[in-house]
């Protein structure tokens, strides 16, 4: 299996090593040379948005070039198979409530790949709760009751648990009354309900909300949380199921590679990995795309899937509209830290915990059993009390062991904050950003379309589902515009 230059792995018997194996690494890394060919469409970026757009364009008969700065597909979602177990570096969990994901799983015959992250059959079947007031253990039933109470108080802005102000999560602004919360942060909302929160409930809602946003209390938009809540059917357990319970047995790279292979089999796909785009010029009859390596490619249309936080690293001519420039300079807040730990104790498989606010990692949970019989746990931190795991592995190990006594066999992670093609994890807006910038982020500019989960329409923006949706919509637009010119080309 090929090894990506990305990701990190540490074990007690060795040093911290950069680079992880992944089936998402594409070899050979390019099948296109210098060419004067004018492609129908150039897709910039091979995350789920780019893969979907490339797949749909090529299967429609469009000559497509896929350009990717990384050595692998997947963008902010990829898995590393280590000793027969898929460690998910980024996006992980999916659900049948996410229509675009489930359609693709059905398309590729992968419904039987869905597995539970949770397993409450082992000895250490409890939840650890460590706060300013101390540490204690509780059952998972007590954990769910605590977090459900806290979340319900957090979202109950209308006396109807958000259903009145946001009845349609895929059209979140349908009821304009919801816009009164557009500038509200987590901290603002917690201040409103402070009198109604116990100390445990406040710790619960803050830790859970920061797991979702990857930001801080002050910079995370409450409106984004309302949308997640509405998409999860206004129910804590359902929301939990959609964001952190069901994953793929084969790993996300095992899913993403299906998109790439289908596009490749059409013989309409050219590609170049390790090829970062530096400039997109849409002033001529065709769009010219220049790479940092000095190559130039041309196409009738470009679908740009560059994430929000690094969109301003690409030079556009004509310049990006004001909304795109301002939003990309401001950046979304998610600086999630995600660390995997392989634990020697198989009885830890039923454990989960919170250490907040004094630990560098906030939430941890058992997520699987490795072929060696060890427990796989995954831990999340946020921009509050942030840590760069690769800079201080001992501090990272200390943060993991702060949850519970653990004999750590291995740590695996990807530093998304330092990632040159992302500078952050899934999107979470600052207060006010959604209303001010969202429509402008979605706008096309001439022959250049902008598609990404960071500004996808619908309830599952920031999820894999939103990425697939955005890629689908962009490819359909290009297909309709280019193929409609030649009726015989549809035959």
TrEMBL record:
<feature type="binding site">
    <location>
        <position position="49"/>
    </location>
    <ligand>
        <name>FAD</name>
    </ligand>
</feature>
<dbReference type="InterPro" id="IPR002937">
    <property type="entry name" value="Amino_oxidase"/>
</dbReference>
<dbReference type="GO" id="GO:0097621">
    <property type="term" value="F:monoamine oxidase activity"/>
</dbReference>
<comment type="similarity">
    <text>Belongs to the flavin monoamine oxidase family.</text>
</comment>
<dbReference type="Pfam" id="PF01593">
    <property type="entry name" value="Amino_oxidase"/>
</dbReference>
<dbReference type="InterPro" id="IPR001613">
    <property type="entry name" value="Flavin_amine_oxidase"/>
</dbReference>
<keyword id="KW-0560">Oxidoreductase</keyword>
<feature type="binding site">
    <location>
        <position position="277"/>
    </location>
    <ligand>
        <name>FAD</name>
    </ligand>
</feature>
<feature type="domain" description="Amine oxidase">
    <location>
        <begin position="49"/>
        <end position="475"/>
    </location>
</feature>
<dbReference type="InterPro" id="IPR036188">
    <property type="entry name" value="FAD/NAD-bd_sf"/>
</dbReference>
<keyword id="KW-0285">Flavoprotein</keyword>
<keyword id="KW-0274">FAD</keyword>
<protein>
    <recommendedName>
        <fullName>Amine oxidase</fullName>
        <ecNumber>1.4.3.-</ecNumber>
    </recommendedName>
</protein>
<dbReference type="InterPro" id="IPR050703">
    <property type="entry name" value="Flavin_MAO"/>
</dbReference>
């Amino acid at each position: 299996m090929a090894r990506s230059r990305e990701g990190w792995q540490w074990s007690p018997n060795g040093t911290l090593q950069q680079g992880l194996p992944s089936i998402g690494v594409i070899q050979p890394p390019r099948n296109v040379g210098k060419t004067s060919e004018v492609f129908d469409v150039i897709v910039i970026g091979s995350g789920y948005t780019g893969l979907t757009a490339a797949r749909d364009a090529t299967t429609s008969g469009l000559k497509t070039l896929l350009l990717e700065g990384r050595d692998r597909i997947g963008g902010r979602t990829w898995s590393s198979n280590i000793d027969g177990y898929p460690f998910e570096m980024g996006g992980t969990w999916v659900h049948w409530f996410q229509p675009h994901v489930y359609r693709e799983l059905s398309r590729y015959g992968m419904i039987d790949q869905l597995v539970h992250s949770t397993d409450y059959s082992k000895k250490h079947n409890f939840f650890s709760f460590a706060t300013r007031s101390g540490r204690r253990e509780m059952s998972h039933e007590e954990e769910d009751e605590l977090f459900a109470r806290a979340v319900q108080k957090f979202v109950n802005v209308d006396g109807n648990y958000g259903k009145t102000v946001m009845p349609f999560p895929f059209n979140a602004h349908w009821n304009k009354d919801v816009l009164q919360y557009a500038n509200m942060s987590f901290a603002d909302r917690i201040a409103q309900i402070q009198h109604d929160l116990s100390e445990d409930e406040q710790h619960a809602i803050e830790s859970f909300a920061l797991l979702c946003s990857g930001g801080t209390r002050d910079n995370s938009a409450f409106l984004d949380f309302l949308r997640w809540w509405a998409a999860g059917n206004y129910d804590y357990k359902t929301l939990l199921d959609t964001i952190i319970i069901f994953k793929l047995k084969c790993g996300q790279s095992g899913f993403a590679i299906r998109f790439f292979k289908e596009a490749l089999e059409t013989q309409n796909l050219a590609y170049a990995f390790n090829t970062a785009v530096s400039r997109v010029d849409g002033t001529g009859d065709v769009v010219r795309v220049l790479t940092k390596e000095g190559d130039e490619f041309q196409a009738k249309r470009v679908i740009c899937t560059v994430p929000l936080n690094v969109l301003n690293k690409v030079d556009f001519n004509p310049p990006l509209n004001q909304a795109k420039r301002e939003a990309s300079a401001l950046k979304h807040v998610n600086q999630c830290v995600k660390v995997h730990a392989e634990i020697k104790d198989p009885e830890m498989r039923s454990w989960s915990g919170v250490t907040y606010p004094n630990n560098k990692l906030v939430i941890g949970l058992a997520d699987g059993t490795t072929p060696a019989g060890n427990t796989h746990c995954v831990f999340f931190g946020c921009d509050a009390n942030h840590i760069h795991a690769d800079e201080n592995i001992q501090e990272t190990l200390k943060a993991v062991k702060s949850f519970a006594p653990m004999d750590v066999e291995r740590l695996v992670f990807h530093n998304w904050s330092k990632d040159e093609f992302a500078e952050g994890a899934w999107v979470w807006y600052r207060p006010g950003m959604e209303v001010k910038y969202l429509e402008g982020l979605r706008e096309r500019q001439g022959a250049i379309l902008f598609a990404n989960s960071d500004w996808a329409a619908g309830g599952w923006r920031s999820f894999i589902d939103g990425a697939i949706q955005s890629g689908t919509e962009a490819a359909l637009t290009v297909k309709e515009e280019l193929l409609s010119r030649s009726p015989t080309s549809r035959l």
